[in-house]
Design brief:
By secondary structure, the protein is of the alpha+beta class. The protein has one domain. Helix content is about 45%, strand content about 10%. A hairpin with a 2-residue loop joins strand 4 and strand 5. The chain starts with 5 loop residues before the first helix and ends in a 37-residue tail after the last helix.
């Protein structure tokens, strides 16, 4: 198991993925898969944390926060050839207060990151998309009437941001471009889609040209959470 450097820990922290032991654990990624949790307390719990106007807005907010973890999977893969590969019970969520507003953050064991060999790189990316993205999209859709596009767009907002950062680093740009092209290819999506949903989102445009631009086709409903407004990617900004 690799030991995370201080730079890695600080990057994870900046995306609200912490490698310390949480004071408490409201729920885990494993629990998100449980039908009783999806149909019972999950949406109500997120409503209580965010004071959102609807369950859909509350669950969308959760997916945006979880999308930060997904973005860090792609960042760590490109920058360090590492991914988080722990048990889903060990990715924990807790409530936190940021800028006067309550939200959720994530906690993971620093020993659960591992190196990725070049020979398994495409498989690893495919597994992240299937197990940590697609399956979570399906789970969240069981909680309330939320469009899968909203959830995927919530993931892609953060993924675009990390690739823009990676491509701006001359030491990482070549590897970032290789990984970006892999993400845009239909092969890594083949377990559940006939096309690259990421390419459908970006249309192949450079990540740097998409940051804070209204390229979404769906609204993340952050405007329906007290203290938040429409995000910089919102299609409402085109009106």
């Amino acid at each position: 198991m690799p030991t995370l450097t201080m730079d890695q820990v600080l990057m994870l922290d900046s995306y609200n993925v912490y490698t310390t032991i949480p004071k408490r654990s409201l729920f885990t990624l494993e629990r998100v898969h449980k039908e009783f949790f999806q149909e019972g307390e999950f949406a109500d719990l997120m409503l209580g944390i965010t004071n959102a106007a609807s369950k859909t807005a509350a669950i969308s907010h959760f997916s945006k926060r979880y999308g930060q973890f997904i973005a860090m999977q792609f960042y760590m893969l490109t920058a360090y050839d590492e991914i988080w590969d722990g048990h889903e019970r060990d990715l924990q969520f807790d409530a936190t207060k940021e800028n006067g507003l309550y939200t959720v953050c994530m906690f993971a064991n620093p020993n659960d990151w591992r190196y990725v060999n070049d020979s398994e790189r495409e498989y690893v990316m495919s597994t992240i998309l299937y197990k940590q993205c697609y399956q979570i999209v399906q789970d969240l859709r069981n909680t309330t009437s939320i469009s899968p596009r909203v959830i995927w767009d919530n993931f892609f907002v953060h993924i675009v941001g990390v690739y823009a950062k990676l491509l701006d680093d001359p030491l990482l740009a070549d590897r970032a471009m290789d990984d970006l092209e892999m993400l845009e290819s239909k092969e890594v999506w083949a377990r559940f889609s006939e096309k690259s949903l990421f390419y459908e989102y970006t249309k192949g445009l450079a990540p740097s040209s998409l940051v804070n631009q209204p390229i979404r086709k769906s609204c993340c409903l952050s405007k329906d959470i007290p203290g938040l407004g429409a995000c910089g990617y919102c299609p409402l900004e085109q009106e």
